[in-house]
Amino acid sequence: MSDSYDVVVIGSGPAGYVCAIKCAQLGLNTAVVESWADPKGKPVFGGTCLNVGCIPSKALLDSSHKFTEARDHFSVHGIDVGAPAIDVAGMMKRKDKIVTQLTGGVSSLLQHNGVTVAQGNGKLLSGRNVEVTAADGQKAVLSAANVVLASGSEPVTIPPAPTDDAVIVDSTGALTFDEVPRRLGVIGAGVIGLELGSVWGRLGSEVVLFEALDTFLPMMDAQVSKEAAKVFKKQGLDIRLNALVTGTSLKKGAVTVTFTEKGEEKSAEFDRLIVAVGRRPRTKDLFSSDSGVTMDERGFVFVNDYCATEAPGVWAIGDIVRGPMLAHKGSEEGVMVAERIHGKLVQLNYECVPSIIYTHPEIAAVGKTEQELKAEGIDYKAGSFPFAAIGRALASGETDGFVKIIADAKTDRILGAHAIGPSAADLVQQMVITMEFGGSAEDVQLMVFGHPTMSEAVHEAALAVDGMAIHMPNRKRR
Ligand code: FAD
Ligand code: NAD
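^ thats the input. predicted complex w/ nicotinamide-adenine-dinucleotide below
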């Protein structure tokens, strides 16, 4: 292994490995440093996303959704399969196989693109030197013209609920339960709480979510959050707002949770408790104090709009920098940085990063919410269209939810799109593309949408922006 590179990337999650591959594609001599190793000591690529995040959670979400389809919905179609049984070990085996396939795929891609792998813990020293400490303590130093920090994030822990990796677990533990807990508590009704709470709730757990805030999903458009609360309640998720967990005690494989709800002291017992109260950047010991890199009091590395840190030639991407902790956001930052290192002044449009909650129905959003526009004093017009009036949604029995489009009142430019319902993520992605091209509500109104498709809800929502939806009575014409 050489010790001098054009680029050294620390971390091979979706931010780091995409950046490394892009750098190599652009002809840069690139190395990636990764500390994660399997029980045999081999490097594990793909970071949180592929190993304990996006992919395994979606595998379980899809398996548990199919289970509910068989249990609750097949009979409507005239299909009688009797009462289905869940084989948790089988479900986990499938999930693990998908993870192995994808992480192995990243390994092959790194190799195929000629990226050098340095196994061990990376630390940035002064002068763009990266110290790599192997598992056996051996140290090597790689020097680079550019260093990209991409060390990702880890779950936040809270003193009243210390995890024991058995009864009280974080998101990683909740992806490996060996049986369906009868009673499941979840601290935090955010993205992870809702996704993993849904997995186990669908398979039969009684799920209670404790949310400290008094608002449900405050980052989503308020109309969407309201619909989501209604749908989740119907699905049996017991979401307690204004509920602060004050303590936990373990006894005979169960946990008693004490909490205050709207100021009142209460307690409840569970077989498993998931702590899902956010994630924090993994930046401890990532760089020396003389490296020139700085971070805020929460551990996020300071970067400019192009992910350059305060140290020349040092960049930071993904979960360790400002913005949403999303795999696709980190990957595109990786591409931007690779292009910039190569000399092309690419920039990322942070206004058009979609976010999705993979519950059923899905929840998806891009751009501004109505409440944000109100707070910013921007004059807007909004239109929404329910799936209950979409032929394809009716044919599929997927009638909960709606698509909502918000446009600037003066220019008609689309400022935001929000959806809860079938294929919400893919429908909102259509609006991401439209917004990237500076599209207006009228542009979408004049497009042809295939029939019968879920996408027709996007077309009708755009028409509804001007009170001109065809397939529902419009409230008022502007
Ligand atoms: P990470 O994926 O955390 O990767 C960082 C890598 O760096 C790791 O491999 C780590 O071992 C390595 N590393 C750290 N420090 C060092 C060091 N000093 N030396 C060497 N290597 C080091 N996001 C989505 O967009 N969609 C989803 O559906 C989604 N689902 C999720 C579900 C769950 C349960 C969780 C926990 C997260 C989910 N996320 C999702 C978030 C997503 O996983 C993260 O935003 C994403 O993985 C961040 O990418 P990253 O490359 O910045 O960091
Ligand atoms: P989150 O920020 O989405 O939700 C955490 C929730 O816990 C919040 O609602 C917060 O108010 C609440 N909370 C915080 N402290 C609490 C306490 N002491 N008691 C009760 N409630 C408390 O964080 P998360 O769900 O842990 O997810 C972490 C990150 O991972 C998110 O930033 C998210 O972007 C990412 N992620 C994304 C996806 C996806 O894209 N589908 C899926 C999972 C995770």
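The chain is about 30% helix and 25% strand.
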